[in-house]
């Protein structure tokens, strides 16, 4: 893991953020409920830090990332970035802050326009925000391709001529075009071969230490998050259930759901691996349209007590500095 400087200054602060999607039914399309994709999450990200956001598919990780970047409008809550509440911005004021917040998408095939050359794809943010033109723009595209480890001579080729790993590098170059401070990496390695995943993660770390970037790294791959993240937030059914420093979380998880997730991660030591007990969760994840009363995890938690089924646990800070939402955590 490369060293990168983490400042004490908070770059992004998310407080009580929710994103609910309405559910409509019938011919006249009347609303019958809401899907609580993200439901009251709070965390801070310091300048130069990588916060890992983990959880199983459908828990709201990607929705949280897109809401923070205002690709979705928040239902409630605040997103403070650079001293401004991004959740309230619109029009020109939102457009002005956009270059500082960018995203690397999960599927490099789907997020690159097949009819555009690599040069046009990377230059699109520059055209949109009219920062450079002509020769300077071409030089910037070459510089960005070089920064992500690709030959600038590839600029006039099309996305289908590249492998998945190369396409993801093109996506990273596009995200870097406007010199952002903060990048949401939405499962940037999930669609790639295992052999390529490490190369892309190493590239992200190298860019972070060279350019002073801050990342929200969304993933369900806990071993990769352990490699890249400074702190880790664990999400379950729209809620963040635990947030701790990387070493703290992996060595001594406090939330039963975190323990279950970590018990599923293979350990590359046969002696340790054979002695470990896996925590198998019973039942299916409840629907975000109708979450259980009390703790979201109570229907599958092996340690649940009566209180868990009726009282929602507070998001509280423990003595060792971590945050957890569990009645039983000490």
Textual characterization of the structure:
The chain is α/β, with parallel strands linked by helices and about 325 residues long. The chain contains 10 helices and 12 strands. It has an 8-stranded mixed sheet with strand order 6-7-8-3-9-10-12-11, sandwiched between helices. A 4-stranded antiparallel sheet has the order 2-1-4-5. Strand 4 and strand 5 (about 85) form a beta hairpin. Helix 3 packs parallel to helix 5 (about 165-175) and helix 5 runs parallel beside helix 6.
How would you concisely characterize the structure shown here?
With 330 residues, the chain is an alpha/beta fold. The protein has ten helices and twelve strands.
Q: Characteristics of this structure?
A:
alpha/beta, four-stranded antiparallel sheet, eight-stranded mixed sheet, 330 residues, globular, 10 helices
SSE layout and pairing:
Elements: E1 10-25, E2 30-46, E3 50-54, H1 61-68, E4 76-81, E5 84-85, H2 91-97, E6 101-104, H3 118-128, H4 134-147, H5 164-176, E7 182-186, H6 194-211, E8 214-219, H7 222-228, E9 231-236, E10 239-245, H8 246-251, H9 256-263, H10 270-275, E11 316-317, E12 323-324
Parallel strand pairs: 3-8, 3-9, 6-7, 7-8
Antiparallel strand pairs: 1-2, 1-4, 4-5, 9-10, 10-12, 11-12
Helix pairs in contact: 3-4, 3-5, 4-5, 5-6
């Amino acid at each position: 893991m490369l060293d990168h400087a983490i400042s004490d200054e908070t770059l992004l602060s998310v407080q009580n953020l929710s994103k609910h999607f309405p559910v409509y039914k019938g011919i006249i399309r009347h609303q019958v409920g809401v899907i609580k994709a993200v439901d009251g999450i709070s965390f801070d990200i310091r300048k130069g830090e990588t916060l890992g956001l983990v959880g199983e598919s459908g828990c709201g990780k990607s929705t949280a990332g897109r809401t923070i970047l205002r690709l979705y409008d928040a239902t409630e809550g605040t997103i403070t970035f650079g001293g401004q509440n991004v959740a309230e911005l619109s029009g020109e004021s939102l457009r002005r802050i956009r270059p500082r917040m960018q995203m690397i998408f999960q599927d490099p095939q789907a997020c690159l326009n097949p009819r555009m050359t690599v040069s046009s794809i990377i230059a699109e943010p520059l055209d949109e925000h009219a920062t450079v033109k002509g020769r300077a723009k071409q030089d910037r595209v070459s510089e960005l391709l070089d920064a992500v480890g690709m030959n600038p001579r590839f600029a006039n080729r099309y996305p289908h001529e590249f492998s998945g790993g190369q396409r993801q590098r093109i996506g990273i170059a596009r995200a870097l075009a406007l010199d952002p401070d903060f990048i949401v990496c939405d499962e940037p390695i999930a669609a790639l071969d295992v052999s390529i995943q490490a190369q892309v993660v190493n590239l992200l770390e190298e860019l972070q230490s060279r350019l002073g970037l801050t990342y929200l790294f969304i993933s369900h791959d806990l071993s990769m998050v352990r490699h890249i993240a400074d702190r880790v937030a664990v999400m379950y059914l729209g809620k963040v259930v635990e947030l701790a420093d990387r070493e703290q979380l992996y060595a001594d998880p406090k939330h039963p759901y975190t323990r279950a997730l970590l018990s599923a991660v293979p350990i590359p030591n046969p002696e340790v691996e054979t002695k470990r007990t896996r925590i198998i969760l019973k039942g299916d994840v409840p629907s975000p349209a109708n979450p259980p009363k009390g703790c979201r995890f109570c229907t599958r938690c092996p340690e649940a007590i009566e209180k868990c089924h009726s009282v929602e646990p507070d998001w509280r800070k423990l003595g060792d500095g971590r945050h957890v939402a569990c009645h039983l955590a000490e």
